[in-house]
Amino acid sequence: MYNHKHYIPILKGKRGELSALMRLSDDVRERILPLLDIQRVPLVFPKNSPTGVLKCSLEEHLKQSAEKIVKALGDAPLLLDTTDIPLEARVSGQKHYFRYLLDALSAQGSNPYPVTGLDRDKEYNLAVKGFVARTKGCNVGIRLLADDIENYSDTMPLLEKLLNTIGVSPKECFLILDHKAIEGAGVDKAVETSEDFICNLFSPNDWRSLTVAGSGFPQTMQGIERKSISRLRRHEFSVWSKLQKKKKDLPRQPSLGDYGITHPDSLEFDPRKFTMGGKIRYTTENEWIIVKGTSFKTGEKGLQYHSLSKELIKMTEFLGADFSWGDEYVTKCAAKKVGPGNLEMWICIDTNHHICFVTEQLANVA
Description:
By secondary structure, the chain is an alpha/beta fold.
């Protein structure tokens, strides 16, 4: 059984995030269990096409995703989900897409724990059940959403039925109460519904882990002024912290899950019609510091990351080059000892710092 200091970062399995996981120390890796929620096939935007087109087939996309995951994590355990892919999707031979992905990972020596929930269909759960049955020592993730958490009296019998369907017990399950996007006004409700759910959960101390998750990160940065330093509250951490203060009233203290430095829902856009700009997202105790630059089409363009890094390292919240690989890169970027990187690289840098910061933060909780 994992305790309340266990951490589940929920990531989308894209290259920047996987690169961040690759660069974690062994100590940090041992304190986390990443949940990778593989996204649908991305769109590309050919020059002469009025709309985006699929980059590749679903089967090829899943094959590439499996290869990237194995490269980043090797045989380290991970929770695996695919909420962005339609449940009716199939690959060649009408094989269920989730079975295909699980088998592709397993064949390469990966150790995925399939994730399901009350919103999945029969075929999806059969894919989960089959993988668990033929994989020794396989655990399962169960991801409940805000409505499931709030309506706990309806959820409990459905949760028991789901366990029976898959053929597992709570001891083999990572139970995740996922509030997804949390705004400031929704913090107290998320605390209340999580508390009610945990207090009414059957066998609360038998579950392999019990996690409360969500994200306060905005979907876009458009509301933040360019050439500015802003602060955003980590609302998901506020929810978790308030639950820790209620630990005497709870049968079990939950652990924390979050979405790193991203919003839970992907935002797909046409890059030909959208102007990107430089930004650094730096996690602190209760906030993210957003150091925002200008458009990549004007001024310093991509080189602005040198000056953005200089702004960040001057702040008292900056923890220094020795804190994480991400912090080391920021320090070197400020001194122009490394290149400015690109958007994907800065997702890697910011995510790496975030995961290291959160694991350290949880380690110091009583």
